[in-house]
Every structure is written in structure tokens, then in C-alpha cells.
Amino acid sequence: MESDKSSIRRQMRKRRRCVDAAENQRCSELACQRLAELGEVAHAEALAVYAATDGEIDVGLLIGPGRAYDGRTLLPRFESVTGRYRMVPVGDLATDTVVGAYGILEPDPGLPAVSDSELLSEAVTWLIPGVAFDLKGNRLGRGAGYYDRMLDGACGPKIGVAFEWQMLPAVPAEAHDVRMDVIVTDRRTLRF
After folding, report:
1. Are strands 105-107 and 97-99 parallel, antiparallel or unpaired?
2. Were both Cys, which of 29, 79, 100, 125 would link to 106 (CB 3.0–4.6 Å)?
3. Of 129, 121, 114, whose CA–CA distance to 45 is shortest?
4. Where does residue 40 rank: exposed (0-12), middle (13-18), buried (19+ CB within 10 A)?
């Protein structure tokens, strides 16, 4: 199964590198419009987002002053001591972030992380990137399991965010892989 996952990851990363900046921007805007229409996003007490990297859909277009979501925003920060990501409230993605582990924007190291109990509550809506998704809500991540560990026990809605071409008929899934409740692409919204 791992060789299947590795093969899909290689193919999808290669395809994502072919998406130019203008197409990424257009698809990101369309996906963010769809996200803004979801009650899970519009009424979220806290929205756990990601900083787009390596050509991912940019959900940063959705959040912040004057945008569709102006509530409490949580962003992952890697903690080298524990080898895991923690979610940290950020007020402004432009001023409260630094380039962190793996070259990804992360919350400033001086900002405190939220507690695990708060993070796992129903009040947090998750926007989750992936390499590929399927029509059953399965997600194929980068392979390190960081999101599966963060999402373990999370009760809030889990929303995968992807380009339409990242949707496959099936991706290999294991018992520890966390399924999505909703997947939003630049073309459609799928509920499971």
C-alpha cells in the first residue's frame, strides 16, 4: 500500500508543479468562495487553517479583515522538541507569522498554542490540505502523518481543500487515516 501512496504522491506533486501562479490564484479564489458559503466556515468559533505551500490552494484568501471569515484563526506551528505541530491563534497572517520548519509560514514562536482540549472541540472547523482526495472523503497527505495526529479525536468539521484534479476515484487509506466530512475544490463541494 505504501508504494501505491508514494506513486500517487509523485504524480500529484508533478502535476501541481505544472499549475502556474495565475491558475493557482483563480482556483484558490473559486475554492475560497465555496468555503465562504459553508455554514461550517461562516459560523465557526475558530477556523484551523494552513499556510499554502508548494502550489496548494491558498485559503489565506478567505481569512482576515474585510474577508469572508474574520473570526479566530488557528495556524499550525512545528515544535521540534515534540516533533509535532500545534495550532496557534494568529490575528494577522502578514504580521504574526515567520518562515518556520520546512520553509512554511508559521505563527511567531512567541505566540501561545491552544490547548489540546480546545483544539479537539466541536467549535473548531478544520481546513485541511492534501496531496489527493477521493470520493469517499479519504485524504492522502504528504506522508509524515502530521495532520492525522493533529486530527486524532477532533470533533469539529474536517474540510479537505483541493484542486478538482486532485480528486481521484480512490486513494489508499488505512485505519489511522482521518476522513474528511466535506471536500471543497475549485469546482464543487462534496459532503460525506
Report:
1. antiparallel
2. 100
3. 121
4. middle
The domains of the chain, with CATH numbers, are 2-191 (3.40.50.10420)
End-to-end alpha carbon distance in the chain: 24
What are the tens digits of pLDDT across the range 54-79? 889 999 999 876 678 778 999 999 98
Half-sphere exposure of 23 (CA within 13 A, CB side): 10
Identify the H or E element spanning 11.
Answer: helix 2-17
Complete edge-to-edge strand list for the sheet that includes strand 72-79: 84-90, 72-79, 46-48, 124-128, 158-161, 182-184, 189-191
Helix (H, G, I), strand (E, B) or coil at 122: coil
Show Cβ contacts of residue 147 under 8 Å, excluding neighbours closer than 6 positions. Answer: 128, 139, 141, 178
Which has the closest alpha carbon to 154: 137, 130, 178, 138? 178
